[in-house]
Write a structure and sequence with these properties.
The protein is built from eleven helices and four strands. With 475 residues, the chain is α+β, with helices and mostly antiparallel strands. The chain has a four-stranded antiparallel sheet with strand order 1-2-3-4, with no helix packed on it.
Length: 475
């Protein structure tokens, strides 16, 4: 009798502990995360990745190179100076013997065709002006890449925390089954003990897999945030930053969507999207390239105009054999070419420039089509993810919790099956992990969508104090 009462008391305490734990989980179901601790936030990770990106430094150098080239291209060619000795008699090598003998100094200056100098300078300035937009686009892409890696690490980190928390419940359940079997009371069987221990082992295996994913994710993020070789390529030699340990903050950020009105319409007209996408840095960079190619067409047309040259010379002559002074000589001339055979040269060069300009235009329309397609795909994905998030929070998780509580209560009252308890708890754990995955995927999708609509990289991450969304909170 005493053993029976003792076992029932232990079972009652155990079920109370489990029910309390389930209630606590229900209260924090919106967060599925550990207590907030300082760590590497997604904003910090993105800023470090942008600061340490060699590609950005390389593009800055290229921009400086084209800016310098544009200044040089707008300058006249250097004048040419020639110095010579003309008509020296070879029999005596006497400078004053012949009247034609003279010491000559000349200078010549070429003037490029038409407005070639100004057009070439403008073309190079336009080429240089595309690189700031490429840099902005690259920063936004880095924000997407580093942000999504951060979110993957966060999912692995919080999944580990969630499973480790649930592992304690399975250990308690295994202890109760073992105590019940040892006391020969209730419906516990040896296979229940084996099943409980098996689930604990499987949980440990899941933890190992998640820890492997966590370590791999940290290495991927460290590729972007590390300071390796920054001093060797950094454009700003004064830039210094501390190494950051990849230990993430435990709060999932709530990323705001740019222009949320675009997501309320079932179908957005392409012309509407064009108005937004046409201001994207990647499109602006192509537009600058188009303008540079148009200048190339104008530059090619200058080849129909002649190239001019001016030259001047001074010839010094010595005295004649009778010591009479000879007059020195001065020469001036003008030279130019005649572009009259244009069918196989100038015409073809202009046509080539026009074709190149048209090819650059196709890049713009191709880029816009790619962005519209990717935007539509991400928009549809976000809608489905938000529907699943609502279903999990409002319907599925409460039902899972109720089922787990009911099956556990029935088992402790000798009215249920142990396997059913295990299945209910495992199903609830999987549902919580799925909910966490959905929450993370929503933020990743929002980050991708913001890339298409941003005009500056700073717009990529806009969050409300890093808090997760609450039930029913849409954008």
């Amino acid at each position: 009798m005493i053993r029976t009462l003792l076992f029932k008391s232990v079972s009652l305490v155990f079920i109370i502990v489990l029910i309390i734990d389930l209630c606590i989980q229900l209260a924090v179901a919106e967060e599925v995360k550990s207590t907030l601790q300082p760590g590497l936030t997604i904003e910090m990770a993105i800023k470090l990745a942008q600061k340490n990106d060699p590609w950005l430094a390389g593009r800055q150098y290229i921009q400086d190179a084209y800016e310098s080239k544009s200044i040089a291209a707008g300058t006249l060619p250097d004048p040419k100076v020639n110095v010579g000795l003309a008509n020296m008699p070879l029999d005596t090598f006497d400078f004053g013997q012949e009247g034609m003998t003279q010491f000559k100094v000349g200078v010549s200056q070429m003037f490029p065709r038409g407005d070639s100098l100004a057009l070439r300078q403008q073309q190079l300035e336009l080429v240089a002006s595309q690189y700031p937009f490429q840099i902005e686009d690259r920063k936004a892409k880095v924000a997407v890449t580093a942000g999504q890696i951060w979110l993957d690490i966060y999912k692995a980190q919080e999944s580990i925390a969630l499973i480790e928390k649930e592992r304690f419940l399975f250990e308690q359940l295994s202890d109760v089954a073992r105590a019940s079997y040892s006391a020969a009371l209730g419906k516990s069987r040896q296979q229940d003990i084996v099943r409980a221990q098996l689930e604990v082992t499987r949980i440990d295996d899941r933890l190992d897999i998640l820890k492997q994913q966590l370590d791999m994710g940290k290495q991927r993020l460290y590729q972007w945030t590390s300071q390796y070789f920054v001093d060797d390529f950094s454009y700003d030699a004064q830039f210094q930053s501390e190494e950051v340990d990849v230990k993430l903050a435990t709060t999932l950020p709530r990323i705001k969507l740019l222009y949320p009105e675009l997501y309320l319409e079932e179908r957005v007209q392409p012309q509407t999207l064009f108005q937004y996408f046409s201001h994207h840095p990647s499109v602006d960079a192509i537009e600058k390239n188009i303008q540079a190619s148009r200048k190339g067409v104008e530059l090619s047309k200058q080849k129909y105009k002649p190239e001019w040259g001016v030259n001047a010379g001074y010839g010094y002559r010595g005295d004649d054999p009778l010591n009479n002074d000879r007059a020195d000589l001065f020469t001036i001339g003008l030279s130019f070419d005649l572009p009259i055979f244009t069918s196989n040269k100038q015409d073809r060069e202009v046509q080539a420039a026009v074709s190149q300009a048209e090819e650059v235009k196709t890049r713009k329309w191709l880029r816009l089509r790619e962005m519209m397609s990717a935007f539509g795909t991400s928009k549809a994905q976000l809608k489905k993810l938000e529907q699943r998030q609502y279903r999990y929070r409002v319907e599925l998780l409460p039902q899972m919790e109720e089922q787990a509580e009911a099956s556990l209560s029935a088992y402790t009252n000798d009215d249920g099956d142990f396997a059913e308890v295990v299945r209910a708890l495992i199903a609830e754990l999987n549902a919580r992990l799925d909910e966490l995955s959905i929450d993370v995927d929503i933020q990743k999708t929002k980050l991708q969508l913001n890339y298409f609509l941003m005009t500056t990289p700073e717009q990529m991450i806009l969050s409300d104090n890093g808090a997760m969304e609450s039930n029913g909170d849409k954008k």
